[in-house]
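Look over both lines:
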Amino acid sequence: MNNKNLNELLNNRYFIALFLFFTVFVYFWNIWLNDIWIPNEAFYAESAREMLESGNFLDIFFNYEPRFNKPPMTYWMVALSYLIFGINEFATRIPIVLSALGSNLLVYLIGRELYGKKVAVVSAAVMAFSFQFVINSRYASPEVPLTFFFTLTLYFFIIGYKRKKFLYILLSYISLGLVVLTKGFPYIAVIGGIVIVYLLFENSFKVKDFLRDLKFIHLEIGLPVVFVLGFSWYIYMYLKFGSSFVETTLEETIKRAVGKKSKGFSDLFFYVIAILWGFLPYSLFFYYGLVRFFKDRKKELLFPVVWFGVMFVIFTAAKGKIPVYIIQAHGAMSLITGYYLINHSPVRLVDRILYYGSLMVPVFLGVVVIGGFVYLFRLDPFYYIAAVFPVLYLLRYREMKLLPYITMVVLFFIFTVSILPVVEKFRPYDKIGQAVSDNVPEKGIPLYVESYFWHNLPFYTKRKVYRDVSYKNIISLSNKGAVLALIKEKTYKDIKNAQILWEGYLYRKGSESRFAIFLKYIHKALNGDFSGFEKRYLIYKR
């Protein structure tokens, strides 16, 4: 098999149109369906809602208390969306989806500039359905907006550098300022490291040539631009909140990077493993391409390899490690993957086994997961017959290189169309909010939650929510006067003359972001085992 078949596909405008349609459709479909996820999405949804409620877009509050954990860009994006579309789940997520699609477009534009249209299209396809990236595009958090501004910064840099136009370099500095407003000032070091290391390798470590390029990017102009854009909000927050803001900011940045205890040798492989599952279905092929790069020494791949390498080294060296930190490298990984899918055809038997094995193993895993979804969640297999058609379309061309992409599209299509509606049956947060609004419209009356806290309750009840209130305090409050509370069954029985506004089961096994565990308990609940949930009563005593 050679690249003739893949080239024929990429020259087919109907295939390109199909790729665009499925990408946009799957990204958008059902983003309005699910209640705000907890805990992470709740921070951004509720804080943005409180911005509109107060009219204050500089101070960030969650549950009517100051929140210093992250810079304001993601909050601002969601708040702007609320102004346009109203306060709802669709408006919460549309900025994230648009940021994800924008990131895909930027990968295409970088690929087209460096390697041509065909590599660009394939790289964008790889990026669009890399597992961790597409999952994060489904809920409000800073990771995908950060990926967009991060990639935008590097796009403007490489365009400006290649075309020798400082205007693009200036736009790169502006984008870097927006990166700082999205996730924080440490990313100046990350992107700065990528640029410096790239210029060193591009100039073969010749000091004179490196200094010439360094002079061209005009740090004396760019860094003040970054400072004014990125640090103005930090200065305002320091002047208003002082040491409490500084302590939280340092905790979220410097201390997270260097203050945690290292786990030793295993830390070196943290992101190797995170990439294996997070960059599916092309993670194995990416590693294959990376090995090929060091063997072939393809200088045209220098930019994405440095992009990936600097990020990998920095985040591996950092003590605090979270899988989503590497998402901003997915663009580089996609470009390396797309390049070798287009420009390399293995000849030797061992190379062919590694090449096609790295493509087909994820396809096999994807088919197993799809079958597991259909069986475990009682989905009607009839609806997934349509999933065969894209596969047949590729087999018509005897082209296997895009089968991992098709498998992930089908898997994510099933996830959004069928799995998420099943999950939502066990997430009645909007119903709790509606019960509160219908029966207790006075927003001055807070909600007390016994011995726990569901982070999206302030968003749905539109009021202050007191968390982890003890049984003793709930009883005491109920004896003193009117009380609105979400309580356990035993507590409900001990409160006399309370009106039940809602009753049902709520998830109690931790964060819903640990989605595999969450799905396990959903599956148990479908079979009558509610061990992952707790019966709760929403009561109002006048």
Summary: The two ends are 75 Å apart (CA to CA). The longest strand covers residues 499-507. Strands lie at 61-62, 65-66, 447-450, 465-469, 483-487, 499-507, 533-541. The chain is about 65% helix and 5% strand.
